[in-house]
Amino acid sequence: MEVEVVPVQGELNVGPQHPGSGHMRILVKLNGDIVEDCELDVGYVHRAVEKLGENRNYMHLIPLVERPAILDSIHMNMGYIMAVEKILNVDVPERALYLRSFAAEVNRIASHLYGLGILGIFLGHSTAFMWGFGDREVWLQILEALTGARVTNSYIIPGGVRRDLTPSIIEMTKKAINYMRKKIKDWEKIFLKNPTIMDRLQNVGVMTREQAIEWGAVGPNLRASGVNFDVRKAEPYAAYSKLDFEIPVYKEGDGYARTLVRFEEMEQSMRILEQIIKDIPEGPILADRFLKQIPPIRMKKWVQGQGRIVLPGYYASFRPPRGEAAARVEASRGELFYYVVSDGSPKPYRLRMITPSYRAIYVFKNLCKGARYADIVSIYGSLDYFPPEADR
Amino acid sequence: MSQTTVQKPIDKILAELKAKGIIAKAESESRGSLDVTKDKIIEVAKIMKEIGFDHVIAVTGIDFPEQQKIQIVYHVSSYSVEDLQKIIFAIKTYVDYKDPSLPSLTQIWGSAWTGERETYEMLGVRFEGHPQLSRLFLPEDFEGVYPLRKDFKIKLEGLFVDKPG
After folding, report:
1. Is the ipTM of this complex over 0.90?
2. Is this prediction's pTM over 0.90?
3. Which sequence ranges form a coiled-coil region, renumbered to this chain (chain A) (predicted)?
4. Could you tell me the CATH number of the domain that includes residue A99?
5. Which of B113, B100, B101 is nearest to B74 (CA)?
6. What whole-number distance in Å separates Cα of residue A131 and Cα of residue A137?
């Protein structure tokens, strides 16, 4: 019987329907089990949000810009609205700013848990996967109670937010924080201190500080490489200038550091939530200019009675003045950038959306070079790369 | 005021650029922009990098069909210089429909890699010197049409669809 000799060098397709690749294809050139070169083929879930943006009114775009990262929709929503607000020149009331931070941090915890769960299943650690998705549910329920939707919340509108906080949501959040603090200890025992996980992540996909800057990494990936940069501190938006929190930074730059950064960020987010619950000021949740346009009957029943905004007619097709605005927020995966150009019509002339995963494409490609084939999934998971977000 | 006022970081950059003969303007404390012709863009980018802008956030192409031009905007910012972290600077330039090409800035900022590739496939602007100028997001058989140009119309469905008959 003849034995087929396996060549030392070769090419291998990972994905696009591989459980270890999500919606993208990775074309790997191998030498033995070392990756010599790697080609990322993204675009399997491209939805052309930027093109669609040129054909929709500003308000109609909100659910669309959220779609690329449904697990991080508050941030996607907020960044876009901040850019629109800059063009419109609207001031947001204090309470609404706090509520934005509140929703964003709840979303951040949920998103990090998702990322950790995915990392777990990539590394064959099913418990982490199930725990991640289970614990995420706790935070999703808070978002559901606050915004009325589970994933694409469409919570933030120009000038404020759509709904107010209620005592029962505060109670839920307190319970959730208690639960999560206990659970994080369990996570540490079963996942972080797990020798297999440590082996698969430590010294894998190492990105030095210089590389991180050169490749334009963002978010936890950047901070794990020793760059102290967080949009919440560098250019505070929402209520972050009034909140006290720290930015976890690691020097190692490997997959384990990236995981640790995300872990510690969850604790910081809970700290922020506690402060918001304590300090949130009273007041309206929508700018005066729009609040005045709500008819008195609806104002009494919905806005004052239930703390819900009934959208005034203004929003249907407002025409912002000519101009352009660039806004950025610190989404769960890192810096999220919006560039909106307005020509005075009710639709944006050009909408540019740079998501954190979009910027991770180049990082991912570079990190794969020289890694072992089996480590591709570790790098993938530890970068918290989310293909639909990159494709937009 | 007798006390000397501390110069804002954005003003400092504008002064530094002015000393090198580049006119830039500030839009707010954290946003600035400058216009440059395409033969000078490499030179300007090098100066910007020396000042401390170390990464590209976005490469945006905006189509202006009446003028037969495409505007390319590079948004740059900094990680390593703390003062510059909150500043986003826009470097703007135009390319003509007749010759939609521009020197690539990937040799200066590696992080322009993805953005330039996307602008190439969506708007048909060639970035000379880009190490891998090929299609990224679009399907392989999507030839000759550039989806982000304004003459590419997408079919829209009305809000109310009339029933036939």
Report:
1. no
2. no
3. none
4. 1.10.645.10
5. B113
6. 10
